[in-house]
Specification:
- The chain is mostly helical.
- It is 80% helix and 0% strand.
- α3 runs parallel beside α6.
- The longest helix has 48 residues.
Length: 295
């Protein structure tokens, strides 16, 4: 009887071990499937960027000619220049305005702040096509006074409209982490309000400002729907240019090469930032440990 009970326990342990192994295997398969689902399109573009053939369904041999051909595609280069010009202007303005808007909102009472934050979230939650169409109608009304308004100006204003809320949402949590009396303490020490803002408050929330700037830049470069409705004739960013060229069925593979380079630069930038943050954190820990030993 005791041997029979021991055997049943052994079988139960074996069943549990087997199920545990199956669970671990399925978990790894699920993670791999999710990662592939997220990055398969980027991998396909990277493969096509080194394909000598223009035909997407045929891979002839590895070639880097499309990378060298980027600078020779004048229309592509113009679209890239327009994209970075609009994104750079919109990002700088959104970072500046969004940071000071967030500081102003944080100084309000909680009830009023909640109301303004609700309005701030509308451009983020609203559908891009609705936002783009609404902005187009507004700019059309301004054409009565400014006939040539559509172009760089309307694109920058449209990008500014939907990037500022992201900066505010990035800066606001950092403001909540700071001491609410920080500004008053600096002013009590004789610092003027604008200097206290620039030299005390801004450095305390610089991580939120930086993350908001990166988010605004990414959203601006990535946008298509709003840009499509608010651009002018002859001024196309990269997404609009690709859409127009696909309609003519003569998309150059140099676009794949540029997209791959953009992804690589983004990845290198993120890895570099993480490495510098880790080094900074390590030096800070070493300094704290040295101070504890010295004391």
């Amino acid at each position: 009887m005791e041997n029979q009970k021991a055997t049943l326990k052994d079988y139960g342990y074996r069943d549990f071990t087997t199920l545990n192994k199956i669970y671990k295997i399925l978990k790894k398969v699920f993670v791999v499937a999710i990662v592939l689902g997220l990055y398969i399109s980027i991998i396909v573009i990277a493969i096509q960027s080194i394909n000598e053939s223009r035909n997407l369904s045929i891979f002839t041999r590895v070639s880097f000619q499309w990378y060298a051909n980027i600078l020779q595609e004048e229309e592509l280069m113009q679209a890239i220049r327009n994209t970075f010009l609009v994104s750079a202007i919109a990002t700088v303005l959104a970072t500046f305005l969004g940071t000071f808007f967030a500081i102003g909102l944080y100084a309000l009472s909680k009830k009023v702040r909640v109301l303004w934050m609700l309005l701030n979230n509308v451009p983020i939650l609203n559908a891009d096509i609705v936002t783009g169409f609404s902005l187009m109608l507004m700019f059309r009304l301004l054409m009565v006074v400014f006939p040539n308004i559509f172009g760089l100006f309307t694109l920058v204003m449209a990008h500014l409209f939907f990037t500022i809320p992201y900066v505010i949402l990035s800066v606001m949590p950092k403001l909540k982490e700071t001491d609410p009396n920080l500004m008053d303490a600096a002013m009590d020490l004789g610092v003027r309000p604008y200097k206290a803002l620039i030299k005390v408050v801004i450095p305390a929330i610089k991580a939120g400002i930086f993350s908001g700037m990166l988010l605004a830049l990414t959203m601006s470069i990535d946008d298509f729907a709003i840009s499509y409705f608010t651009t002018g004739a002859g001024f196309d960013n990269l997404s609009i240019w690709i859409y127009a060229v696909i309609g003519r069925r003569n998309l150059t593979p140099s676009v794949y090469a540029f997209s791959t380079l953009l992804t690589i630069f983004t990845l290198v930038g993120l890895l570099t930032y993480q490495f510098l943050q880790k080094q900074k954190k390590g030096k800070k820990n070493e300094k704290n440990n040295f101070s504890d030993i010295a004391s």
